[in-house]
Amino acid sequence: MSPLLALILLPIAGAVFGLAGFPARKAAITAAALNLVACVALLASYQFDQGGFQFLSSCPALPSLGISFTLGADGLSLGMLLLSTVVTLAAVCVARAPQNNVHWFYASLLFISAGAIGAFASVDAFFFYMFHELALIPTFLLIGIWGSGDRQAAAWKITVYLAFGSFVLLIGLIGLYLSMPVGARSFDMRAIAEHAQMGTLFAHDTVHSFSIFGFEYLSITHAQVVYLLLFLGFGVLVSLFPFHTWAPQAYASAPAPAAMLHAGVLKKFGLYGIIRLVTPIFPPHIASPFNTLLLVLLLGNILYVGLVTISQRKLDLMLGYSSVMHMGYIFLGLVAWNQIGLNGAAFMLIAHGLSIAALFALSGELRERTGTLDFGELGGLAKVVPTFGLLFGFAAMASIGLPGFANFAGELMVFFGAFSAGVPSRDSFFNNFQIATVIAVWGVVISAVYMLRAYRRIFMGPLVDRWKSLAEIAPLPKLCVAGLILLLLVVGFCPQLLLNLISPALIRP
Amino acid sequence: MTAFLLSPEFRVVFLGIFLLMLDSFTSANKRYIAWAGIIGLVVLFGFSFLPGLPEGVFPAGFYLSDPTAIFFKRYMLLATILTIALALDYSRVYEEFIPAGRPGAGLGEFYILPIFACAGLMWLVSAADFIMIFVSLELVTMCFYVLVASMRKNLLSLEAGVKYLILGALSTGFLVYGITWVIGLTGQTSLEGIRGVLPIVPQGYQVALMFGLGLVLVALGFKVAAVPFQFWVPDVYQGAPTPVTAYLSVASKAAGFVVLMRVIEPFLIVPGLEQKIVSVLTVLAALTLIYGNLAALPQINFKRLLAYSSIAHAGYLLVGVASVGADASGPAVGFYLGGYLLMTFLAFLVLVHVGRVTGGDDISDFNGLGRRSPVLALGLLIAMLSLAGLPFTVGFLGKFLIFEAAMQSHQYLLVVLGAVTVACGFYYYLKVVRAMYWQPVVADAPDIAVPAFTKLLIALLSAAIIIFGIYPQPLLAMLR
Predict the structure, then answer these.
(1) Which of A183, A435, B162, B316 lies 20 to 30 Å from B100, alpha-carbon distance?
(2) Is A316 helix (H, G, I), strand (E, B) or coil?
(3) What DSSP state is assigned to residue A379?
(4) pLDDT by residue (tens digit) across A76-132?
(5) What are phi and psi of A54, to 5 degrees?
(6) CA distance B296 to A486
(7) Distance CA A168, CA A236 (A)
(8) What is the share, in percent, of chain A residues with pLDDT greater than 90?
(9) A130 vs B430: CA distance, rounded Å
């Protein structure tokens, strides 16, 4: 059996054991811990000097369409797998067992994890897609049954939105498949990249004019349609402005471990997909006409959503919006279309996953203790729970992108990449990439404003009487959050550690 | 000719006549008649895998035997078996609404008429001639007129019967009138003959030809529940006895699509006509997708929800038909219909049992089903996820193949519309899931006992949905 298949099956086994009557929490933690160990072992046995996809295993599923169940991992997917297993372990450890249906609760968490791991370990784009969808129903159940606040509305919204996004994505993938020459069509990511390099992808690209009863309503090339569909589909899944409204509400209502897994890991599926299936494949002449549009949208993420984040009065919603906002930076790195921007974006995928998971874990702990996340009701907590305050401070700094944390290295690379992107302007003015970068840098200021304000409102100021006897954070969650922050610091001080892993996998078009 | 008489349809007719005799001349328990029908059909289903008629066109171009026809003959047999099985479970509700002259009166026909309808449907999928299409379509429709209205003491059933009768007659009128035009212009009744004559039909006749074909499309639009010919669907589906609803929404729709694809095929070789036909189909598909999915959103009655969902699925199937340019379009439509049979019958099977105990078929009657009957709830969960199109189910692969065919023929508008409406679908199908798993059980609701045979059927259908959702090759091989 392929080691990657074991990585996918372990969480499912944990879920099945839990459902079969074993203590659910213990089964879940065991499965997650074993998975982390297995993932580290995989990382250790990866042949760095050889590079490329390793641990390959394949079995045909739908031969007539060139679909086969192929697993494999290169540096980038190993990085994502490591992120998934780390966050999964943290999430199941932090999780507070609910009163009802404990085993279903942990099983849903583990299914989300299995879906994410399966997606990152798939080499076949069709199964890459299918595994992501596997996580849709557990998310629906987790938010709908065990969520807080307006949980039913949030559960509907995220499910319908993501279903829409993934079907748009599916159509895009089909379009990509059909762009290959007949007879050589395949959903294998390696084959797609190969076709792109040899120039056989979009070789017979034609302009299509569409008309109903002689009235022409559209004139576009097939490649452009595919590009737009893929970007729109992945964009909805990553909460690209203006398709972001599902995210904040869902993350605010979701139980903390579900928010950690979804915001930290599953949402990265879309960006990972762009790095795998869009940037190395589309030649610039197809992509560049849409650059300005994408820049405007991602500035919407950074500026508009950033300002919305500042105006939030509850921590959970604020974190939800902040996670949407940070997607803007990663998109900026992707649209820059050069090596350094791509590296920065991939770097931020992992850095943001770790930092947002730490923040959601802390906010979940806080909600458990106080029953409220309203800034107006909290205050001065650092006096009674200093460790809590310290951890939150670290996580907030990481999220802002303070030097020393991994996020800083990622953001820096993204900004460098974006500023040097695009065609140099003829008359020495800034081109649109440089303008966008200059505006996007202000996002750092915005995130500093809301994060520090949140810290001040919760942990500083006069202590409210209600919280005089608040208990300090429990040892296990403390350990988990501290571990996540430690990882962020290690990677932040030695970014080369992570870059050496992911960089060879990033092909520049 | 003897080969023709031994064709599977005649065997089904003989089975039906035998059962009618049994019903009239013996006082056998009606349940045994149903069982005899199921067993007979299962045997005939097995026969269909033996080498039968050679491929080709039979007497005077009336009857066509090709892989598609053979696939759909099996399909109709399977649908009829499942309908009779449903009818068995439904009989207690049914008996309340028929005049009780003597015990079990009218129950025999309820089991036997689907068999005659099945023969008609099997002829329909083999029909290669307009006359044959008309005659077999009428055989099917006659059986359905009776079946829909057969719960004579139930007002809803009577209302449904009248509506179905009037609109069925109207669509028959359209069909005959359209056929007349086509025959008049080409001088041919068989599709093969029309294909031969079309290239030499004068250019000036094209408008008239399009008019005739348009009328035929209207009539078939009624059969497959395409918008704007769908208005009979919700009322008839809600009023008819549940097994008949299931039969109507699966078998009748499938036959309609097969005939639709067969009828338009010869006309596509004429360059000017192809464009127009595809345009008409595109508009029909777009309207059906939008209406079916949007109208399903606010439904609170499960049977009505399934009625609108059946319109919505007709929309996806029409997307496949509108992609006639792609060679994958025929198999995609066939595969979709195959999956549709599995998931629709699974949903109706659960509905019959829940309705039997709770006495209603609102979505709120499913509240807490997850605790009252885990087997039924799991079955319905799989059916709903598959209808919504979640991966690892046959419903997803069906949509995948349809979208693939549509992308191949560059129907971008329909494909994007399809993605939007799939998202709508997630909302209304998950509404049922929410009722089953989120909502508390009504205080005095009894647990639901499920007969062993039903459990077996639920297990088989669920397994088929998931297996064909991961490994569709066997089904696709039958279609290509």
Answers:
(1) B162
(2) helix
(3) -
(4) 899 999 999 999 999 988 888 777 778 888 888 999 999 999 999 999 988 899 888
(5) -130, 180
(6) 51
(7) 9
(8) 20
(9) 19
Q: Which helix (H) or strand (E) holds B56?
A: strand B56-57
pLDDT band with cut points at 50, 70 and 90 for residue A210: low
Chain A: give the shortest CA distance to residue B407, in Å: 6
CA atoms within 13 A on the CB side of A195: 25
Average pLDDT, chain B: 88
Nearest to B110 by CA among B130, B88, B128, B127: B88
Task: Indicate whether A429 pLDDT > 90.
Answer: no
Record the tokens describing residue A406, joined without a space: 């991994």
Whether residue B410 and residue A210 make contact (CB cut-off 8 A), yes or no, is yes
A219 touches chain B (CB under 8 A): no
Note the pLDDT of residue A380: 81
The pair of structure tokens assigned to A231 is: 């970007």
For residues B102 and B380, what is the distance between their CA atoms, to the nearest angstrom? 36
Question: pLDDT tens digits, residue range B119-157?
Answer: 999 999 999 899 999 999 999 999 999 999 888 888 888
> Do B141 and B172 touch, CB atoms closer than 8 A?
yes
Interface of A with B in 417-476 (CB under 8 A): none
Question: What is the spatial distance between Cα B46 and Cα B9, in angstroms, rounded to a whole number?
Answer: 14
Distances (CA, A) of A51 to A7, A54, A121, A507, B243: 20, 8, 16, 12, 59
Check A208 against B410: CB less than 8 A apart: yes
Chain A residue with CA closest to B480: the answer is A64
Q: What is the mean pLDDT of residues B339-358?
A: 91
Among A480, A453, A261, which residue's Cα sits nearest to residue A365? Answer: A480
- Residue A3 predicted with pLDDT over 70: yes
pTM listed for this prediction:
0.89
Q: Dihedral angle at the C-alpha atoms of B472, B473, B478, B480, nearest 10 degrees?
A: 110
What percent of chain B is helix, strand and coil (3-state, nearest 5)?
A: 80, 0, 20
Q: What is the DSSP letter of A505?
A: G
Amino acid B4: pLDDT = 62
CA B255, CA B223: separation in Å to the nearest integer?
9
Q: Which one has a higher pLDDT value, B106 or B452?
A: B452
Residues 120-139 of A with CB under 8 A from B: 129-130, 133-134, 136-137
Read off the pLDDT of each residue in A289-316 and give the average, rounded to a whole number.
89
Alpha-carbon distance values, B390 to A219, B148, B203, B294, B335 (Å)? 32, 32, 48, 19, 16
Closest CA to B174 of B231, B214, B219, B237: B219
For A25-55, how does the pLDDT look when each residue is reduced to its tens digit (9 = 90+)?
888 888 889 989 999 998 888 888 787 888 8
**Cα gap A18→A104, rounded to integer Å:** 8
Question: B443 pLDDT exceeds 50?
Answer: yes
B311 in Cβ contact with B227 (< 8 Å): yes
Give the distance between the most distant pair of CA atoms in chain A: 75
A59 touches chain B (CB under 8 A): no
- Give the model's pLDDT for residue B3: 61
Contact A144 B419 (CB under 8 A): no
Q: What are the residue ranges of helices labelled H in B438-472?
A: 452-470
Q: In 10 A of CB B341, how many CB atoms?
A: 24
